[in-house]
């Protein structure tokens, strides 16, 4: 009878030992089982962040491409404005050079006109010097006419005044200005226009004056005037028009 309590006691100890052995592996496996769950949760939380990053990348790329196109447009506009400014400066420089050349030629023409009477008073000059002076004056007049043509002066339908000019054998430059409607004529002398006298004032009409070199004439030239409507004509006798 005493053996029975002892047997129950041993059996209870064995059962408690088995229970303890079974609970320990379960407690140890619990954290290990929770680790994969946490990893999956962290992985699932990382996926939305990655999607947000990938979604933000295209918008950043589109904004950068738009900014690049805008900058390229500004650069092209700036280049065109710079080119336009250079062209305007070139036009201004060309006009300034044209004005300077015109002024220089006018000064040369004025000097030659003023020095001509003094040259006549000095006496005879060699033919070479006369020819050189004539050539220089011709070149100045040619350059002046070229500049006037380049300046694109307005074209007058019915010009009122005209010019007639020639050189004498002595190298004198004879320049006449006339009014096409009245027939009034002036001669350039000593830097001014001197009105040529009339026997009788001509009527208003259409006139033309011509002048040519005449070596055998005492004046060295001859000049005539004609009324294109009536046919009346005059020749220049000294400083007066004389009718034929």
TrEMBL record:
Bias kind Polar residues: ranges: 37-47
Residue span of region Disordered: 24-71
Signal peptide positions on this chain: 1-21
Top-level taxon in the UniProt lineage: Bacteria
Alphabetic keyword roster: Coiled coil, Signal
Amino acid composition bias (Low complexity), ranges on this chain: 24-36, 54-71
Coiled-coil stretches: 81-115
PROSITE patterns, A to Z: PROKAR_LIPOPROTEIN
Protein's name according to its UniProt entry: Uncharacterized protein
Organism: Marinobacterium alkalitolerans
Lineage: Bacteria, Pseudomonadati, Pseudomonadota, Gammaproteobacteria, Oceanospirillales
